[in-house]
Amino acid sequence: MAFLLPCPNCGPRDVGEFTSTGEVTIRPTDTPSLRELTSYLYFRRNVAGVQREWWYHRLGCEEWFQAERDTCTNEVLRTWVPDPSGAQADARPVPETPTA
Amino acid sequence: MRLPPQPGEPLQRDRELAFYFQGKPVTAIHGDTFGSALYAAGHRVFSRSFKYHRPRGLLCCKGQCPNCMMRVDGVPNVRVCVEPVREGARLEAQNVWGSLKRDALRVTDTVGGPFTPVGFYYRTMIRPRRAWPLYERFLRSVAGLGKVDKHSGRAARFDTEHRRADVLVVGGGDSGVDAAQGYAAEGRRVVLVDQGPYLVGRELAGVEIVAPATALGIYEGNLVPVDAGNVLLRYRAEHVVVAAGALEQPLVFPGNDLVGVVLPEAVRRLIGLWSLKPGDRAVVVSADEPGLDVIPLLERAGTEIAAVVDLRETRVREIAARGKKSRVSSVQLDERKVDCDLLVVSGGRQPAYPLLAQAGARIEYDPARGIFFPADLPEGVEAVGSAAGDGISGAVPAASYNGAAAKGKCFVCVCEDVTDKDVKRAIAEGFDSIELAKRYTTVTMGPCQGKLCHVPSIRLYARENETDEASIGTTTARPPWQPVSLGLLAGRPHEPAQRTSIHHRHKELGARMMWTGTWRRPHSYGDPAAEAKNVHETVGLIDVSTLGKLVVSGPDAAAFLERLYPNRFADLKIGRIRYGVLESDAGRIMDDGTIARLGDDLFYVTTTSTGAGAVLEWFGWWNAVWGLDVEIADVTGALAAVNVAGPLARELMERLGDLDVSNGALAYLDAREAHVAGVPSLVLRIGFVGELGYEIHFPSPYGEHVWDTILERGADLGIRPFGLEPQRILRLEKMHILVGQDTDSESNALEASMPWIVKFDKGDFVGRWSLEHVGERGFREQLVGFEMTNGVVPPEGGQVVIGGRPGGRVTSARWSDQLGRAIGMAWVPPELAQEGAEIALKVNGSIERAHVRLRPFFDPDGDHLRS
């Protein structure tokens, strides 16, 4: 990982300045079943392709923002600070946990 | 040896320098490298080879091959052929058992050959098994090149610089310079990196020249680390131009490693740079024009040309060099034997493509020219000149020139002493892919990293497998493309230390400092037990500036904290404080601290000393997720804090300002803004150490003033500072958990015996569902206190033993003078989490008894705290 990530505030910076919590997940709104809870906590879509992610400019402006990144090429399509209502809007849910 | 002064030679003959080789002085002149000076002094053998300890001399003369590596002033593996001379330097030969002239391990060459075939260390030294430690010790002592001086310490200091360029040109040959000037003319910011010293001092309009320096690789995002001596320059370039040139390839024939067998560049440099006569009688065998260009140079230097073989016109089946006293003395060219003391060989030039391959270029083979060249360059990367394959032509040399009659070792790889026989044997053993054969034979894995052996080994591989070079393909090109010292990659040791604004007072008071995360904190001021006792009896003072401190404000601040913490904050009254434990959505304890409400929409949050950064990130992230109207400001460094604790703390506080600190005006868990010692402060009445206590937060610059004033005004009360160790004893007496000490990444608030902090009767909060699940599934373990029956202090991390098996673990344990007992905390099975239950702990191999305690050991009802 040595690509440049454009921070919405600071512009393109070395990826080492950032931390990431990975893909944008959707937090259940109502009490989830144990299965739904497990999916939310421990399962990710883990796509090979464009993924929406959370990034934090730890060694910069300390802003949390989202990015669309191709996990195969590390090409960053766009980055933006989510507006108050839309942090999880349009995020794709984690598929149902596979049954054991 | 030195030729008479040549027109335009870069030497300054009137400036002499001296250095030492094997302890003996050698004279050099300004412009020499160590290698050229040794050559001028008559030295021809520069090293002994890796495996067979064969004598080796200058081969490439441009810092690529391993032949001239020596230890210079304690630094191993310095290529002396390109290292400029330094006055007084000390050089030692490497990989020598004995001397360069007589090396005891030469026996591996003369008789050991049949016993040390490729991969021998996997096979010949396995029996008898018992002898392996002996073999291993021997192998370890002879393997590797050069020795690191373990006692040299930090001789050099390395740094890293981050730089940017519009265009970065790697290679300062003609095409590199042309490209650089072209881009500079377009007005772009151009940096030119060149390995040699020849561009130093040269002016190119609009071009920044970095030399001598080497580009180590091309990484993602056009990141090019450049080795510039003691500084690693991390260049980010919009456009990278690779003008790395071409690599002269050797020929593979018996005796091709003899001293006196050289590549054409060695001749060019010996004559052109250092005015040295390379030999008296030369034979030139070349597959291309540049190889033949050395002939007029040699003639001018007075070397007799004994024979010339142009492989483009003459087909030769057999070439074999023979030597006397480790130097080439004759060469057999098919039936013809020619005496010579210099054999110049050129197997053609190969584009230096590895940097381009690292960047993502595809590498193709051109059978007509016998070269691998880069194709399909990625965006932002360009190849110019020979590196792109331009201007390279010549005959394709044979894979090897060892006819049936030829005797002697025929080296494919001089770095690792791999012969053609080794390659053939590897193929016979089934290593049919070039990548696997590379790992087995270690061809291309030596110091030259394939510069001289990659193409020859592929040719040999193709011939032995009866296929062509294109089908064999290349091995993966990986950084570093040029050798680099580990020190440069490691950089300067960064051990950030955070110090509070009262740090120097602690040092003056004789504190023993310790690390907590990146903070330096006083462990104690000499006597932890007495310091703890003093807190119980009079009053103590501790620096708690390391606590993380966040100001959370805004219309949604209360709602925000209400959703982050498992307990309530919306109903917290202004001027009141509540303890909080942060949980992740998986229900795991992240951090703890106190939250004081200073206004309707203003909260002051403290975190653990080491957790401040993580909590700031955590708060910021949830704020982004929820999109609430909240501002989070980190004031950890801006504010210092001290804790005044002990039965006399109130009396002391009265002396420090006009704040009414009576129990009625400032009750337990009250927060007030006030002046303390004349400094605007926030006073929090909290009691982490179990006695009446006041935590005073104030601007950092006043640290020493407030500290000094408190100690001064409390002197007659018996105040003394206490460190972290006494604080740990005191908090353990109160059974307060330390996040990260008593809890780990799996712990949750319920099993950590803090069910009172989880309010299931409020709305959603982070971690709620997982904690509900823990409640439903039942506890698997529980955090409890214990006291030892006999006063033995068990080790932290020690076992709780149940029925002879490990059933839990001790997380904290201390001797408490106050209680006269050894106490601690431990995770135990839930059935043992009963007041008074007996548990067994393993201490130094024996079993000791303890009783479970569920309430604080000291002041269980909090009378002291509330007094």
List keywords for this structure.
heterodimer; A: 100 residues; Folate-binding fold; two-stranded antiparallel ribbon; 1 helix; 6 strands; 32% strand; B: 867 residues; alpha+beta; FAD/NAD(P)-binding domain; seven-stranded mixed beta sheet; six-stranded mixed beta sheet; 21% helix; 30% strand; elongated
Summed up:
The complex is a heterodimer of chains A (100) and B (867). Chain A has 100 residues and is mainly β.
Strand content of chain A: 25-35%
- Strand order, main sheet of chain A: write it out: 3-4-5-6
CATH-level-2 architecture of chain A: 2-Layer Sandwich
Helix content of chain B: 10-25%
Q: Tell me what the CATH architecture of the largest domain in chain B is.
A: 2-Layer Sandwich
Annotation, overall tally of beta strands of chain B: 46
* CATH class bucket of chain A: Alpha Beta
Could you give the distance between the termini of chain A? 34 Å
Strand content of chain B: 25-35%
Percent range of helical residues of chain A:
under 10%
Radius of gyration of chain B: 38 Å
- Name the chain pair with the biggest interface and residue counts per chain: A-B, 31 and 23 residues
Total helices of chain B: the number is: 23
Find the structural class of chain B using helix and strand composition. Answer: alpha+beta
Number of helical segments of chain A?
1
